[in-house]
Structures are given as structure tokens and as C-alpha cells.
Amino acid sequence: MYHYDDFDQAFVDARVAQFRDQVDRRLAGDLTEEQFRPHRLMNGLYLQLHAYMLRVAIPYGTLDARQMRKLAEIARVYDRGYGHFTTRQNIQYNWPALKDTPDILAELASVEMHAIQTSGNCIRNVTADHFAGVAHDEIADPRPYAEILRQWSSLHPEFSFLPRKFKIAVNGATHDRAVIQAHDIGLQVVRNEGGEIGFAVYVGGGLGRTPFVGRKVRAFLPERDLLGYVEAILRVYNLEGRRDNKYKARIKILMHEKTLETLKGEIEAEFEARDRALLDLPPEEVARVAAFFAPPALELKKPVSDRVERRRDKDARFASFLAANVTPHKAPGHVVVTVSLKPIGAPPGDCSADQMDAVADLAEDYSHGEIRVSHEQNLILPHVALGDLPAVYDRLASVGLATPNAGQISDIIACPGLDYCALATARSIPVAERIAQKFGDGAKARAIGPLKVKISGCINACGHHHVGHIGILGLERAGEETYQITLGGSGDENAAIGQIVGPGFSYENVVEAVETIVETYMGLRADASETFLDAFRRVGLAPFKEALYERSAGSDI
Amino acid sequence: MALWRLGGFADDGFARLADADALPSDGAVIVSLGRWLSERETLTARPAPVGVAVEAGADAQAHLADLAGRPLIALAFAKFADGRAFSYARLLRDRHGFRGELRATGDVLIDEIPLMLRCGFDAFEVENGPTLAALEAGRLPGPAIHYQPASGAVAETSPGPRPWLRASAAEDRPLSRPRGPSADC
Ligand code: SF4
To answer: Above 0.95 for ipTM, yes or no?
Structure first.
């Protein structure tokens, strides 16, 4: 993985010193809250419902055991013993004191981490496929490009006061695990006929109250032009993005209002006018950064392990874990283990300091010290030898981290909602907990197969409900929580915004409605291999509508 | 209010002219963009320097090429940081070859000055007390090393090995220079 050199270290240290000075000035009254606000946001510090919240970047979701232990230590010393992994490869601490935040940032800097640009109207933490470097279907590792973009965007003098936040994601495999089409810029690594690496560039994706799937502005952008082209997009956006209404300020609205052709023309013109010498990426430099991400030397192993087979036969829960949480690694005899942070009945993404330490220990003992964080709010041990699975599973189980539900109906993404968020119009975590309890992580959930449920507590859509196979949006109508359900959303390479199924459901009835939807799917699927999403694409909304509203089951009306 | 340039506080050689004021026959003046557009002929014929001020929130993009021949352009910042002026500065300096004084006015605060400098601003009208105090103490906050090239008008070194890295010239940052590679490594 990437390691800071003197330059990188000096940069984060200077940034910590600057923030310490800003906090001192704020506490002394030299900076008003209004003046302080953009600076604290640029350093990841939000003012939440109950207290400050600090959001720490885990760039492109890769970290090592030492960094995970530091996150645990911060949770213990400065927070209430836990942290919350988010949908954008960040970790949030919900209870830090303002005066402590410079010390927390200094602790982070000591392990090559930071909270730079995790909030505010600037270029946010660049995200990538959490299976980068280990996936079978990879064209090239996306992380070197994400790291180069992270550097280029750090305190960019021109783009620190954009109309609104700006999110970039990079995917390097044929299957899109980074939801790139829901980002302001989505970069898909591709090869042209000549075998050269480049990017398909998508612009203007985003969820929120007006969801759009990103539009392709370039089918092949040569690797060399990455920074020049991204800078051109940002400049057009900075100059022309709307500043009169924060709900219309994202680049997706500019794309919508200007049309794809016009915006693309402006981006290309800006790109043509650039100073080539400044931002062209020399191949040697890309190779130098890429070398940091070279996979560890893995011993070749047999693709079958007797130890694993014996345990599978006699332990149904272990068998479930194998089926749901274990993915093949590109190196034979190795696997990628997803550590679910969705235990049945607990808030999605929460992780205690002890659990973080346990994952760090496991990474050191079994995964070459490496850990990943996924946008699905789970952790990943990327390089586990197949034969070590029983030991890894047992140790995960001993700290409550062996929930065998990755990718299943109870592996739910849910935003903080009314329990923590000042903007919420409804609860989301308790709805996730009730759905998880209803379907569990056993045979019932396995029979349903892959199904992504995503829940947001208001139209800002932080829970990505628009791209959930089943999306749930909590609203408030006449003082009552009401939940609108969308079906058929998807965040992969065939990205789609879910369609509203009909009138909303009450807090009491929403789980029953989900059950009706699932039963309807089970009844109409061609066979067990037809996933919910495939079945929905075949049959559309009608059968679900009928089951929900025309028969009485689960309906409010 | 005081005028600050790299190197210290300076006299403002320009007088601000309200739109209703008569044009004096000599002395450097700054007029509004509106006045510049409507009285361009008179203003260009005038032998003494005429700078142009663009108010905060105005869409100046279409006029940048036209303004690039002026000896001074003042771009105002509104309270809620409207970041367009950062791009105007880059375009004026790097696309339209503007070599006159680029002055930041309005809500100019110490934490934004380093970013403004990197985009090509070289003069700052400062009212905010803590900002004045910091400038008097010779204190520019923030890292003096950078992850991306600045405007071509800004003197920075390229510390390598990554070609996009930059370092501010040492004399720009009297007190806040962190440890880091020197310019020649
Ligand atoms: S979707 Fe709404 S309620 Fe949920 S975290 Fe975002 S702003 Fe808060």
C-alpha cells in the first residue's frame, strides 16, 4: 500500500498545525463560527445533532493493521469506544470535543492518515473498489489513480470553494463495485484496442433529492490525461455550477440543465486549452505510485482445503459464512474475507475499539497486515489463505464479527437517520434492525439470495436508497414517519435509479411491506439463480404493486 | 482598510471611483465593470491608468479576455466564499496573459490568502482585524508545499520526484515552513 514520503508527511503535519491554530483562534473568538465553518469542514469536522462529528478519510478504502489500531485508540481515548464506518470509505467519530480535534488529527498524521476534505464544498475523499488488487475481473488496480487524484485534489487552491461537494470514484474491474455512476466523476479503467490503459469518464451522477446516473463524456481518456481532464471538468463546474440554491448546485444539475452535449463541449474546450506540460502524467510516475500497491507475495496453495471442507460439513453457520462472506482471490488457494459490520439488530457500520483491534490482529496474522473498508460499510481481509479460514472465522466469531450475511438482505446500508442526524425526517437504523431481525442471517436469507436493501432517513439520500434493489426513504407526513419504497435500483455497471412502487408505508408496516416484496419475488423467480434484480428487470413493478396494494397484505391504505 | 502585497503593506496607488463620480483627468483610478463596459472609449483614451473592479457574485467570465489589458483588476469575494474568483484568477493569469495587479477585495481572510496567492492574486485589501494582525506578524498559515502546480504567474519550485509537487519560495513563508524536501532534491 501507499506510504508517505517526507513530502507527504510534511504536508499533513503542516495541515495539522494550521488546523490547531484555527481551533485556537476559534476558541479565542478571533474567528466567528461562520468564518471557522469552511475550515473545520475541510478538516472533516461537522456540527451534528448532539455534538461535533469528526470524519476521517480512509483513502480508497485501504489501510493496514497499524492504522486500524490507531483508529481503535482514538475511539477509546477521544470518543465513546466505537466508530462508525460510512458509505464513502470514511470512519466517523460522533463525540469528539472541539479542543481535542487537533490532537486527534496529529494522532492520525502519525500513521499517515488525515481528515482532509472529508466534508465541505470541495473535492472529497476519492473512493475505489474495495476488492482492488485481489479481484479476478480486474483490468488494472484503481488505487494508484485514486492516490494520484487524492494528492492533486488536496488543498487545491482553485477548487476549495466549489458550489457544492464533489465526489470522485475509480473502478478498475469489469464489475463496478465502486458505484462510480452515482458520483460527480466516475472513472472506469478500460483498455483500448492497442492495449493501452485509460478511463471511461462519467460525469453528473449523484443521489440526493434529484438522483441522476452519471453520463459518459469520454469513452477512452488516455492515462496521461487524467489530471488535465479532471481539472477541466472541475473548472467548468466551478465557473458555471449554480450557487443560488444548494439543492441545485451539484454538477448533475448543470449536466441536466445544459444537456450532455453542451457540457461535454465545454469540458473538451477547457481541456484543449490546458497547459499540457503542467499536468500530463508521465508513465514512470504512474508506475512508481503503482509499485506501492503491488500485491504481497502469496505462496501458491491448493485451491481446496480439507480442513475447510470438514468444517463446512459439520458446521452450518460456518458453511453460511463461506457462502456469503468469502470471495475467491486471484491467487489460487487464497480468499477475500468480508467482515460484516451488520450484526442482526445493531446499527450498520458501527465497530467497537476492541473489534477494530481484533481485526488489526487478524490482518497481521492472516492477511499480510492489510484491511479494506467497503462503501457497503463492511471490513475486508483481502489476502487470507484458504486453509486459515476456520481460524479466522473462530476469531471473528469471538468478537461478534462473523455474521454470515455479506450481500444478503440483512447486509443493509442505512444512514444515521433521526437517531443522530439533524436533517432527518424519519428513523432509518431501527428500520434496518427490524428488517435484519425479520430475515436473519440463516437459511431464510440464503434462500432469498443477493439483495441490497438501502435506507435513507431523508431525501438527502445518504443511505443510497435510489440504488438499492429495495430502497427505503423515510419521510415525514403530517407529523408521522412514512416510508417510500423504490424497487430495481442498482449501483453497478448497469446503474439504475429505483422506481417508486406506490404510496408510502408507516413505521409499523414498512417491514411487512418488504416481506411482501420478498415473497412476491420468491414466488415469481424463474429459479433460485434468478436474483431479485434480474427478476425485477424481467417483470417490472406490476406484480409487486399488486401484491402490496391490491391484496391487503402489508398495505396501509 | 489596508493594502497588502507579498513583502508587506503598501500604498494603494489607485483611487476607487464611484459610478457617479466624474472621471479625474489624471491619477490612477479603479472603475466598476459596468462603467468600464459603457465608457470604454473614454477610459482607454485616458493617459493615466484605469483598473477595473468586478463585484462579488458577478459573472465575469465573458469579460476576462477584454480585461486582461488593464493594469489592475480587483475581484471581490462575498461573505459566503464564492469560489469563482479563484478560477477567474487562474484564467486571467494563465489563459489571457494578464500581468497587471490582481487584487482581492471584500471578505479577504488570512486562511484564504495562501490559496488566492497560488491562483495568481498579488494584492489584498484587508479589513478583518485578526487577518491584519497575522499579516503584520508575517504569518501565512498552511502548508508551504503543495500537491498541484499553481498559476504560472506564481514563483514556486518543483521539489520532485512527482512532477506535480510544488514548494512556495522560502521568502513567501517566513514562519510556517514545515520540514520537507528542499528545492533541489
Ligand atoms: S439521508 Fe438525511 S437523515 Fe440520513 S444521514 Fe443523510 S441527511 Fe441525515
So the answer is: no
